[in-house]
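Researcher: Next entry: Transcriptional regulatory protein ZraR (Sedimentisphaera cyanobacteriorum).
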Amino acid sequence: MKDRGITVLIVDEKSRRAERVGSLLEGLCERVYYAQSAEDAANVMNRVKAPLVLTDMMAGAEIDGFELIKGLRRQYRAARFVMLASSASIDACKKALWLGAYDFLERPVSRESLEKLFEGLNKSFSLSAPDPIQASPAGQTGSERSFYFEGVKSKSPAMRHIYKVISKAAPTNLSVLIEGESGTGKELTARAIHMNSNRAGNEFRPINCAGLNESLLESELFGHVKGAFTGAATDRKGLFEVGDKGTLFLDEIGDMPMSMQAKLLRVLEDGIIIPVGSNKPVRVDVRVVSATNCDLAKLVEEKKFREDLYFRIKGVSIVLPPLRSRQEDIPDLLYYFLEQACSELGVDTKDISKNCMDILLSYPWPGNIRELRNVVRTTALMSESDVIEPGDVPPEVNSMPKLSSPKPEPAPKLLVGQSLEEIEKQAIESTLEMTEGNREKASRILGIGERTLYRKIKEYGLS
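Model: Predicted structure:
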């Protein structure tokens, strides 16, 4: 081990069991703290900011292990979370990975499994950084590991590229323009940029530019003084001032009136706002992330959007693909939203039949992720069986013309004519890529021993 000066937090309702795991950490870390509930864990993290948290599933607790990971990850972005579970609960633990956990360990936890965990962490992260919780995420790895879209790590090459763009753009102060159809996750992307930036500890303020008329939009953005207009009974700060040192998300910026575009441009260039009804300038420091479902370049050509503002907000450009073009992500998204819906609605966990999955994969999802989430929630509530069948899906999904290619990639056809060795090599190579080189995870997914995997890697020259 090269990094032994770290602090570890173990969260478990059973203190003796937690202390046993703690004893196995001797020599692997400097100090171990214990917590018996999510509330205790939050208090400990507030004091010591442990870079590594090992948590039990805590099934039945008011806040279980999954919610603990979900909540603490928002506040302690650089911390790594590992779920501890019995062999019977390993499949359920995959949900923890969807929520951003680094890994999960099977109970009873062994010294060997902990050593492998630390070895993997040391290869990917600097756990003994002076202040790992406050360090800029992009400065830690520069990889897309930190970015999960709706809690699901994407398999789509287009989305993986977007993760890399986010990881590079987030720590800068460059303006970002996010383009994409409605429901593709533009605000989610903006929040990812904010949460992985040096401004994450400050405000993230979204506003829909299409939902307000010009005077209201100006007041919302720049604020107003008492008596500036009818109804202005007191001074009121605008989003630029309230969000100082933070991020302002301008959604549907393509619908912003031309006169407001000129005022926004001046703020972006000078960093100064003037509240409505005032003549006193106020200096602000706000990063602007904009989004649109319009073709802004075309609006510029049509003189409906200012060219100078267009280039000012387009410091970094991100174009989100529609869900129909990244079908490989649909199964994971479906199960993620299904788990979420069943938990929130208080219904039994459900599965999706193969026939139903085929229908959902062939549906073009014109409303993208937003529509998919709503369909899953409705279906989870209305289905009376523990397996969702085609008849449980809303009629509009069944009646909509289907995509010509229900499967994202014609993988079976690519296997025709290949030897078993070639197929095995491809499977190992793809799994290693998906697990980012983590051989222990890859061996578990492939269903083979780690030694066998190591031998195959050498045999096929994949190292």
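Model: Note for the record: The radius of gyration is 25 Å.
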